[in-house]
Amino acid sequence: MTTPRPQGVPILRLGDVLVTGLLNELDDKSALLFTDELTERIVSDSARGVLIDISRLEIIDSFVARTLMELTTMSRLLGARVIVAGMRPAVAITLVELGIRLTGVETALNAEQALTALGWQRTLEAPGHDLVG
Questions:
Q1: In angstroms, what CA-CA distances link 58 with 17, 24, 47?
Q2: What is the dihedral of CA 3, 32, 84, 97, to 10 degrees?
Q3: Can you identify the CATH homologous superfamily of domain 11-117?
Q4: Mean pLDDT across the stretch 69-82?
Q5: What is the Cα–Cα distance from 66 to 101, expressed in whole angstroms?
Q6: Of these four, 50, 78, 86, 111, which has the most CB atoms within 10 Å of its CB?
Q7: Strands 81-85 and 17-21
Q8: What is the separation, in whole angstroms, between the first and last Cα of the chain?
Q9: What gap in Å lies between CA 67 and CA 77, rounded to an integer?
Q10: In what order do the strands lie in the sheet with 11-14?
Q11: Domain coordinates of the chain in residue numbers?
């Protein structure tokens, strides 16, 4: 039996897709815990997709960029596709100005587009609604 870890960044499950996000306060220790927790959840939940929402990031540095690239590579090795969503224009500009390439990182404009790309669909019918008359 594994001992519970302190909770860091929330990771939600929507079917076979995990949804999470990054905050500005991601330091080295938090990044390592987040990486460990996310990769463990991919395996334990048999996730085939991961959405990482970065819309709350106002700035990005080489450490956060490297963390995203490493998470993407690890997730792919575990059989899950990762999409990073919600990048702000200022963050994209900073990455380009710093010469940082998010090699292997797939992006989407927002979380909804990322979920659609991962094959997750919202059901518009009410539960238990039967179309047979």
A1: 25, 7, 28
A2: 170
A3: STAS domain (3.30.750.24)
A4: 94
A5: 9
A6: 50
A7: unpaired
A8: 50
A9: 15
A10: 11-14, 17-21, 49-53, 81-85, 106-108
A11: 11-117
pLDDT surpassing 90 at residue 51: yes
pLDDT tens track for 79-95? 999 999 999 999 999 89
Mean pLDDT value of segment 66-74: 90
Strands 49-53 and 106-108 come out as unpaired
* Backbone torsions φ then ψ of 109, nearest 5 degrees: -65, -40
Helix/strand/coil percent split, the chain, to 5 = 40, 15, 45
Answer whether 115's CB lies under 8 Å from 14's CB: yes
Rg (alpha carbons) of the chain, rounded to whole number = 16
